[in-house]
Amino acid sequence: MLIAFDSTQQALRMEMLLEYIEIEIDLCPTPKGITAGCALSIRFPDDDESAVWDVIETEKVEIRGMFRELSDGEQFEQVVRD
User: Please, which of 6, 23, 31, 72 could form a disulfide with 18 given CB 3.0 to 4.6 Å?
Assistant: First the structure.
């Protein structure tokens, strides 16, 4: 899973929040297949999706979107919370 952001400030804030709750993350460049206002994205394990949504909502983190990587690794589909 991947989260894209509109600002570097929000990406770094989210990095800190997810590290605090011990979710394994990778701060990485935003893939070309995703339009975002910020060059940074965060990758995290699919199994942590629910916990990540909870952080986004409770901490009011502004994101461009959450995305699931498709099989080719270059295309993504946006994920919305159930």
Answer: 23
Cα(28)–Cα(14) distance, integer angstroms: 13
- 35-49 core/surface letters (b: 16 or more CB in 10 A; e: else): ebebebbbebeeebb
Nearest to 75, CA basis, from 31, 41, 25: 31
Beta bridge partners of 69: 76
Can you name the residues that pair with 2 across neighbouring β-strands? 43, 67
Q: What pLDDT digit, counting tens, does each position of 7-61 carry?
A: 999 999 999 999 999 999 999 999 888 876 788 999 999 999 999 999 999 999 9
Structure tokens, 49: 């999706």
d(CA 9, CA 31): 18
